[in-house]
Amino acid sequence: MALPDLAKKPVRFIGGHRACAGCGFPITIKIILQAAENPVIVGCATGCMEVTSTIYPYTSWECSFIHSAFENVAATVSGIEAAYTSLKRQGRIDKDITFIAFGGDGGTYDIGLQALSGALERGHKMVYVCYDNQGYMNTGIQRSSATPRGANTTTSPAGKKVPGKQQYPKDLTAIVAAHGIPYAAQSSMSHWNDLYRKAKKAFAADGPAFLNVLSTCRLGWGTAPEDTVDVADGAVQSRLWPLYEIEKGKWKLSLKPRRHYPVEKWMSMQGRFRHLFNPQKNETFIEEIQSQVDAKWEELVRRCSAET
Amino acid sequence: MALQEKLTKTAALTGNEAAAQAMRQIHPDVVAAYPITPQTEIVQLYSTFVNDGIVHTEYVAVESEHSALSATIGAAAAGARSMTATSSNGLAYMWEMLYIAAGLRLPIVMPVVNRALSGPINIHCDHSDTMGARDAGWIQIYSENAQEMYDNLIQAVRIAENPDIMLPVMVTMDGFIISHGMENVELLPDRAVEEFIGEYRYPYALLDIENPRTIGPLTLQDFYFEHKRAQADAVVKAKTVILKVGEEYGQLTDRSYELIESYRMEDAEYALVVLGSTAGTAKYVIDELRQDGEKYGLVKIRVCRPFPAVRLGEVLSRVTAVGVMDRADSFSGEGGPIFAEVRAALYGVSHRPHCINYIYGLGGRDIGPDLIRSAALDIKSLKDGSESDSLVRYLGVRE
After folding, report:
1. Could you read off the pLDDT of B9-44 as tens digits, one per residue?
2. Is B287 at the interface with chain A, CB within 8 A?
3. Fewer CB within 10 Å, N- or C-terminus of chain A?
4. Are residues B277 and B358 in the same domain?
5. Chain A residues with CB-CB distance to B under 8 A?
């Protein structure tokens, strides 16, 4: 897929929404929806995506869309998919339709994890997309289990004694993969081609598929709107957010950054890590994060090479 | 057509079996459910119908009640007739989604088998579960016995799906007392139920992809209130629809239904107000008292939402004293929920009777004729007394 061709694809998520300038998720949604060949029905968890795109009586969705609550998008879309299966079996509907559930990291890693796990285990043919912006951004930047260690959020503030969030993020993609679903992948809105290709694979999967997509939140991360793509790219290059896929149980690395890109460089681009650099640099803390990222990366590379 | 499809038949069924039979005949496109005592048997039986190929339903064995109602909401909005069932803590776990189902105006029908809420944990009957959900925007219909459970479920589909209503309906029966007690239940032929309920038509189906719609948008200060006003209006209109459906059902079965049932109220001086299975025992007590020459009557509230305040005012304004029996406490410090609402209903009547509350049967505590009789005789003492005594009395509890 060349970029000019992508630009010609029908857009199902249209302008006029109220997301911030420089927000990552509209880019994520647009690319994913452009990869869908069939008509789509979208379910959305409560969060920025839903509140900025469906302010009654307006909507940015050019396809069927439902939002019901925060923690249950996987269950809601399970019901839609079940309705489709039932009506199709009865001969009351004949079209092929694709079902997509969107949730942020709060709605997926945390409060929606049970509903997600249930839907994956039951095997509904749907694509679940987590737009991971590493925190509860809609409610005003609180820490989630996806927030990176060290980040300053309103519930993990950079205090005098505790420098921001203490825990490392949950490895959700691996948790999802452990359900043995046909397709799961990690991607980033900075890598449109990777995202487009993975969305295609997810739609083609024979069963549930999952995409965990890093999506910059410029307010929560403390970055300039024009740096949205670069900062997401930095997460990929630093190996903090590796791009990989698990296809029918087979782990495969999608991108191996060529140059060494220290996590420190990625962190220093963002206001949420400022306290780790000013007034003085917290060397030990940053080094510890770097070694964790390295260890996770090596584990991933091992997993991927063991499969080939 | 096989003989059983043509004729009404009588079968010995538990309340749960009667509910499962009603569901089989309603034949929803989707059932999403989770087990909880004493409801489990309903969905267990239903999954047997699914796996034996008796129904075309897609059965979604969800991982929680929250997801049960969420999936049912998704399916109903997609354009499929959808049901779930629950009890007690399961209903409490659905709480958030109850309001959303009603707010999205989805005509979901849900049997609820009444069971006490935790804690402490208890699996037996009281009404604390559905009473807690009475303001969630659902129509609530209480059943006295297995036959009524069956009848109410079938009528509920017509009520919920009426284009002027479009609201979810919960149909309740008392846990174990009805759900696990066996009775003779008259079942309609499958075809008759099919014809009575008609086809499911949801005008904004998500699966109607040629007409994409956004369901469940963010609605702020400028429109939320109008949506809620429309919802409140639908609840009011439901009274007429429930009566019409109850009358039509009567033509089909010789069992017609109203918002309330008055029993021996014509010349009654004293009345008991009850919901659910206790009405059966209370009728027996009323008969006994009548034999003794005492002028007692009974009012059974069948439909609790919308609340039949006007009807209650009409039938109760002629009596001297009313005893309202609540199988739940509201913890308002002022008695049970039904008591508060019946008293409010009596405020506007010209001849206002004394009104007292009996809270009974919590956590499945048995309620026999003797206790009901003692309550009935107790209200008689209000005749000349003032209401300065405690209006809230507990029946059958160690004090």
Report:
1. 999 999 999 999 999 999 999 999 999 999 999 999
2. no
3. C
4. yes
5. 39, 41, 43, 50-51, 54-57, 59, 61-69, 71-72, 74-80, 82-87, 89-90, 93, 95, 97, 114-115, 117-118, 121-122
